[in-house]
Design a protein that fits this description.
Length: about 270
């Protein structure tokens, strides 16, 4: 069932192209053109439909959480949460300009890199669902926070160079972007904590085997300590700027290595589930 993913990718690209064209035509407006936002909303809806079928439409009592589907779901939640948390016309424009192409890539990824990993959860449906939801929300929100960190780094360099492009002048102030980044980090940290706690203490109920210490667990715990230290530094010493950006990106890379990296190696390179 590739048609919905193909349509989703096209809608994302149309939304992004429309936002860039609108920016070129109206460089002084802080409000994005209406039709790219409508197309972006349609892309999100189509993406949700295709994900629902891919994850749950092929059987009962389980979920297909293969590599490409997991990435697609994380990107969809990233776009959705970014727009919902921002609640700002300028942030909607930012999503259209820069994140919609990522959505197109993730939707098309299911077509050119299909993966299948069906996980049964009979007997522990509620616990398993809560664990999976917390984990995916954590990854999605950390992804949004990492995108904020990259944006802060990019805008800081542009400001120092005195080379702010017209489409960047209508973005939210750096302090607003940084504040949103930390709000996202707090929520994501709580989700990651819930994921780790449930995985450690309820592994046998959730996955049918006792808790094991492996590279995935080690990198997850390392990312938890990095993000926890960053948030503690923010609360106690007011950490911000390049220091906050640096540690956000370090923690995000560790999180990628713990989950996405291991799934990519096992499913794509080694062809194992």
């Amino acid at each position: 069932m590739t048609e919905p993913n193909f349509i989703t990718a096209i809608l994302y690209l149309v939304a992004s192209s429309g936002a860039w064209l609108a920016t070129r035509k109206s460089q002084q407006s802080v409000r994005p053109a209406a039709w790219p936002v409508i197309v972006l909303a349609a892309a999100l809806v189509m993406h949700a439909v295709s994900l629902g079928w891919a994850l749950f439409g092929e059987g009962e009592g389980g979920v297909n959480i293969g590599f490409s589907h997991a990435i697609s779901l994380i990107v969809w939640l990233t776009l959705l949460s970014y727009i919902m948390v921002g609640n700002d016309a300028r942030l909607t424009r930012l999503a259209n300009l820069y994140l919609a192409p990522v959505g197109a890539w993730s939707a098309s990824m299911v077509i050119w890199l299909p993966s299948y990993l069906w996980i049964e959860y009979e007997g522990a449906k509620l616990a398993f669902a809560a664990h999976i939801i917390a984990a995916i929300l954590a990854y999605a929100l950390f992804t949004v926070a990492a995108l904020h960190a990259l944006l802060i780094l990019f805008l800081q360099r542009q400001l120092l160079a005195g080379n702010i492009a017209s489409e960047q002048r209508d973005l939210p102030p750096l302090l607003r972007i940084e504040k949103l980044m930390f709000q996202l980090l707090w929520i994501a940290f709580l989700m990651l904590t819930a994921t780790l706690v449930s995985g450690v203490f309820f592994s046998e109920v959730l996955f049918g085997k006792p808790f094991q210490v492996n590279h995935k667990t080690v990198f997850s715990l390392l990312s938890w300590f990095v993000f926890g230290g960053l948030l503690a530094g923010r609360f106690i010493a007011g950490w911000r700027g390049r220091l906050a950006v640096r540690w956000t990106l370090i923690g995000f890379v560790m999180l990628l290595l713990s989950y996405v990296g291991s799934k990519f190696v096992l499913e794509v390179i080694l062809k194992r589930v």
